[in-house]
Design brief:
With 140 residues, the chain is mostly helical. It is built from seven helices and no strands. The protein folds into two domains: 2-89, Hypothetical Protein Yqey, Chain: A, domain1; 98-139.
Length: 140
């Protein structure tokens, strides 16, 4: 599981005294714990797709924070946040290109928008941007 790899990276970051990576790992781990508790109350299990979605949301938040730090000219924090984003991106699956998305859509029997979107959400969560799927679907 992805969380096991993150735990190994946490140990490595402690050994290297890499506070930038340790900070982002602690955020990821705390959010994963909260998500595990939430999943346990609903009777479902935590999946890698859930962790990927959590990491994607964190990257978006970090990107927004970078913009704010750029406005106040805090280059040190911008650099730290960029390192954290780079670390997080290492745990995301390879993104599908628009051509790959198009080929997948063409291989489906039912090419209706709700069916295609559901198919990508269920089978390719975290591996593609749903806006790209919608864009490719509209172009067909």
């Amino acid at each position: 599981m992805i969380i096991d790899e993150i735990n190994k990276a946490n140990v490595q970051a402690f050994k290297e005294r890499n506070t930038v990576v340790k900070d982002v790992i602690s955020v990821i781990k705390s959010r994963v714990k909260l998500l595990e508790v939430e999943k346990r109350t609903t009777g479902t299990e935590l999946k890698d797709a859930d962790v990927v979605q959590l990491i994607q949301k964190l990257i978006k938040e970090l990107s927004e924070a970078i913009e704010n730090y750029k406005k106040v000219n805090n280059a040190v924090e911008v650099e730290n946040l960029e390192k954290q984003i780079a670390f997080c991106q290492g745990y995301l699956p390879k993104a599908l290109s628009k051509d790959e998305i198009k080929n997948i859509i063409l291989s489906l029997d039912d090419k209706s928008i709700p069916n295609v979107m559901k198919h990508f959400k269920n089978n390719y969560a975290g591996a593609c941007d749903m806006r790209d799927v919608q864009e490719v679907l509209k172009s067909l």
